[in-house]
Amino acid sequence: MIASDTHRTINAVWRIESPRLIAGLARIVRDVGLAEELAQDALVAALEQWPTSGIPDNPGAWLMGTAKHRAIDSLRRNKRIERKHEEIGHQIEAERELTVPDIEAAIDDDVGDDLLRLVFTSCHPVLSTEARVALTLRLLGGLTTEEIARAFLVPEPTVAQRIVRAKRTLAEAKVPFEVPRGPELAERVSSVLAVIYLIFNEGYSATAGDDWMRPGLCEDAMRLGRILAGLMPDQPEVHGLMSLMEIQASRLGARVGPSGEPIRLLDQNRARWNHMLIRRGLAALARAEELGGALGAYALQAAIAAVHARAKTADETDWARMAGLYAQLAQVTPSPVVELNRAVAVSMAFGPAEGLAIVDALMQEASLERYHLLPSVRGDFLEKLGRLDEARAEFERAASLTRNARERDLLLERAAATTRSK
């Protein structure tokens, strides 16, 4: 294997293994900032050694073992080696006999999951909401600050500062690495839900890179969501989030073509949707509704996804109902992005001119200035109205804003198609 191939493999392994690596280290050193540093040290060691020695049979275990040795060195420097060395030694010996648990086993262990502990630690009330989400995306999602900034529609330096300050705050406050219990658990669930869904979204539609999706992130988010649903079976929004993720994940196999090119929702082969996930998603939505009360933001989004899931063909989609659900969602969580999505549903239900009026009202929204989906949606409406030159300009602008190579290709193809249609 040539060096460039090895480096690509290392990057892929890192993207998959880093959340578990950081979570496992945080359990040992009780400091998420130090855990990330130790994980990064292991990554540097892999970059130095693997091009020569080859990729290990179990790269995740290699990284963890390397990081744990560095953890011991760090504890020695802090003059705590006598107490911790024996503890880590017992952990390493015990973990040699463990196999990776499957998802169902993880669900049964409602407080024993390192990743879940890491989510709750990253979402501790000592941090601001923005810092909780950014830090967890960084530590669990393995995302760069640039990718997180795009998810938040804020400048990259702002995200970087949030992450540095968050890790420092957690260390100074000596936040325990644990899953909270009792009333504190209920108080912190809403921020955890937001984190889990943002991780899922990054997997569902990657903000950058060469891949349209990162299914591994979706799986991590769904795994955490299922564990949380086991912890809080009577919370409707937990089931609402699970419903939303299950239904959206059901489309993963139909969202890309043979060469990895994106396929838009209305063009997807619905026979390729995962109907087991749809059934599970609809059941979770029913559970959220049975628990009573007004539907929250996640349950409403799940209800929107269910409109797609229940339609056997794109033409059978109940767009009027979807537009109404988006209007409800806008009341619960007012947002320019929600309004942009409502515009799409309104366009499909009542015509592109109606949707364009909503989008045009968003054109001066500062938070959407660099959001590529705004010109993309506007271009779609203009194309349907026959305003092809304007549509081409919008698709080209959207292509210039996206950081995802697959999405850029799709948008440029749509721009070119407007010229061929003239």
TrEMBL record:
Residues covered by the RNA polymerase sigma factor 70 region 4 type domain: 121-170
UniProt-listed InterPro entries: DUF6596 (IPR046531), RNA_pol_sigma-70_dom (IPR014284), RNA_pol_sigma70_r2 (IPR007627), RNA_pol_sigma70_r4_t2 (IPR013249), RNA_pol_sigma_r2 (IPR013325), RNA_pol_sigma_r3/r4-like (IPR013324), WH-like_DNA-bd_sf (IPR036388)
Residue ranges annotated for the DUF6596 domain, each copy included: 188-288
Organism superkingdom: Bacteria
Span of domain RNA polymerase sigma-70 region: 19-80
Protein's name in the database: RNA polymerase sigma factor
Biological source species: Pendulispora brunnea
